[in-house]
Write a structure and sequence with these properties.
About 45% of the residues lie in helices and about 10% in strands. The chain is an alpha+beta fold. The protein is globular. About 10% of the residues are buried.
Length: about 150
C-alpha cells in the first residue's frame, strides 16, 4: 500500500508513462548524450518491490518491444507535471495505476506480465484486498506517523 502513496500526480515519483532525454517527470529517461555508455534510467520501481520480479518484467518488456519493433514515439522533453490533461491526451501520455486494485486489473489483463511472472505471482487476489487498496492510499495511519515522521 505504501508504494501507491508516493505515486501521486505532481510529486517527485513519476506517474506518467513516457520517456525523455532531459526531464525526470516521465518513467524513463534516456540521456541525450549517446554512445558506448548509453543508459536508461528507469524511475518507476519502488524500493519495496521485489527486485528480481521487477527486473524480470523490465527485461522481458524491453525484449518484447525489440521483437515487435515497437516505436516508443518521440521523447517528451517538457515537464509533464506542468502539462494540462488536454496536452497529455494529445501526446498520448497515460498514467500508472493509481492503486492496488487498478494495478491488479492491469496485471490480469496483460498476458506478457502474467507469463513472465508465472501463475504463483499472478493468481487473482481477494476482493477485500482490492477494496482496501482504494481506501488506504491517501490515508496515513497512526503507526506510520509515529514510525516515520520523527525520522524523516
Amino acid at each position: 500500500m505504501n508504494s501507491y502513496k508516493r505515486l501521486l500526480p505532481g510529486y517527485e515519483a513519476p506517474v506518467n508513462v513516457a520517456w525523455s532525454e532531459h526531464n525526470r517527470s516521465p518513467l524513463l529517461r534516456v540521456p541525450a548524450r549517446r554512445g558506448v555508455g548509453t543508459r536508461v534510467e528507469v524511475r518507476v520501481p519502488d524500493p519495496s518491490c521485489n527486485p528480481y520480479l521487477a527486473f524480470a518484467v523490465m527485461l522481458r518488456s524491453g525484449l518484447d518491444g525489440i521483437d515487435l519493433r515497437l516505436d516508443p514515439g518521440p521523447p517528451i522533453n517538457q515537464n509533464i507535471f506542468e502539462m494540462t490533461a488536454r496536452e497529455k491526451k494529445r501526446l498520448r501520455i497515460t498514467q500508472l495505476p493509481a492503486d492496488l486494485a487498478e494495478a491488479l486489473a492491469c496485471l490480469q489483463a496483460d498476458p506478457l506480465l502474467r507469463e513472465t511472472l508465472g501463475s504463483t505471482s499472478t493468481r487473482p487476489t481477494s476482493r477485500p484486498r482490492r477494496r482496501s487498496g482504494r481506501t488506504t492510499r491517501r490515508r496515513w495511519h497512526d503507526w506510520e506517523l509515529d514510525r516515520y515522521l520523527a525520522v524523516y
